[in-house]
Amino acid sequence: MRKLLIIIATLTLLLYGCGGARQEVRMKELPAQPDTEKYVEVDAEAEVVPVPENQIVTKRNGVDAAKKAAIEKAVGVYVTGQQMISKSLLISEKIFSKTTGYIKDYTVTSEGMNGLFWKTGIHAKIRMGDIKNDIDALGLLIKTTAGNPRVMVVIGEVVDGTNQNTGSAETQISGALLDAGYKLVDQSQLEQINAEETLKAAGDEKAAAVIAKRFGADIAVVGRMTINTKPIEMEPYKGWISGRGNLSLKVVKTTNGDVLMVYSKADNIPDISIEGAAASVSKRLSGAAGKELASSIGPKLVESNFIKLLISPLPDLNALEKMKKWLKTFESVTDVAVRAFDEGTGEFEVELTYGSANDFAAKLETGKGVKVKEVGGHAITAILEK
User: Fold this and answer.
1) What angle do CA 215, 218, 219 make, to 5 degrees?
2) H helices of 138-192, where?
3) How far does Cα 278 stand from its chain's mean position?
4) Could you tell me if 127 and 71 are in contact, meaning their C-beta atoms sit under 8 angstroms apart?
């Protein structure tokens, strides 16, 4: 009986629960997260061979080709035309294969037969940041050439009035520059420079530029290491040899012979022999000089060669591309690279063969409706007037 009562009570509770009011669980809706990604708009067209009697596939192929054309325009902002050709397989495999991932959305603006081909036009919104990061990961992103120019190092060494051919100072300084990522003129080429040319280059920056340019260098580091030795008469180094060295260097641009920087330092080291004293002071002076040059040449060259140019408004990637091409038409311009494109403002890095920021700003206002707002030492801010 007791078991029967327990069963009846359990069934009653279950029935009561089933018949009672149900509790409704509501999912709280989270607020939509803002889209913080930066997009660039671009128009692109492409032609494909139509698929016979299958317009659906033809249209799809046309859209895919137009998407790729849009991405090619975006990639062209960050790599050179030569890279687009020489690295075409790598770019195709790593970049163009991810076309859909770079395009947020698009609109077909035109489509139809154009002679024997099906032509499609689209207006697309592209994630430029993703493309730039992927290109950089491939090592193809355009870098400032001033950051790692090709350097020629030629230093004449004189010990006690006698010319030396050890090349120890050149080796020390060249090693520091190599470690910092600079490219150097091959040592076998430097052997073609005779002692007379070395001495002339050390005292004449124009001559140094001519010699360095002969070997394809952007920068010449030229100078003299002069060391004088003499016996030490005082304790505690009496009987040793004092080596007093003086290192004087000039860093010269090969394009115009301008001196980027001048470096000079002296030191004194004792040793038990003439050879040891000379070698020690040479190593210390050239080692210190190498570190200083490695950290200074790049920034100095950037300051002298490059201008940061901010221009707005540039409504889309097409306008950015046209501006880049226009800037390249100036006689003083060697190259133009896009460094950023954000909310209608393009940041260009303009490499000049000659002239200052003020000179280039004056040229900018001669066409395209450009109005310069501000000119700094190596920066220009300008607007496009309607």
Assistant:
1) 100
2) 168-179, 187-190
3) 41
4) no
The DSSP code for 50 is P
CA distance 81 to 44: 18
CA proximity to 175, closest of 151, 159, 191, 157: 151
Domains of the chain, by residue range, sit at 40-137, 146-298, 313-384
Query: What do you get for the CA distance between the two ends of the chain, in Å?
Result: 98
- Whether 41 contacts 103, CB under 8 Å: no
114-146 pLDDT, tens digit each: 999 999 999 988 887 777 788 777 776 655 445
Choice among 128-142, 220-234, 266-280, 367-381 with the minimum mean pLDDT:
128-142
> Token digits for 2?
């007791």
Query: DSSP strand E in 232-344: where?
Result: 241-253, 259-271, 306-312, 333-342
The residue among 222, 216, 213, 221 whose CA lies nearest residue 256 is 213
Homologous superfamily of 40-137: Helicobacter TNF-alpha-Inducing protein (3.10.129.140)
| Superfamily (CATH) of domain 146-298 | TolB, N-terminal domain (3.40.50.10070)
Residue 21: how many CB atoms within 10 A of its CB? 5
The predicted pLDDT at position 23 comes to: 39
pTM of the complete model: 0.48
Residue scoring higher pLDDT (150 or 188) = 150
The neighbouring-strand residues paired with 105 are 125
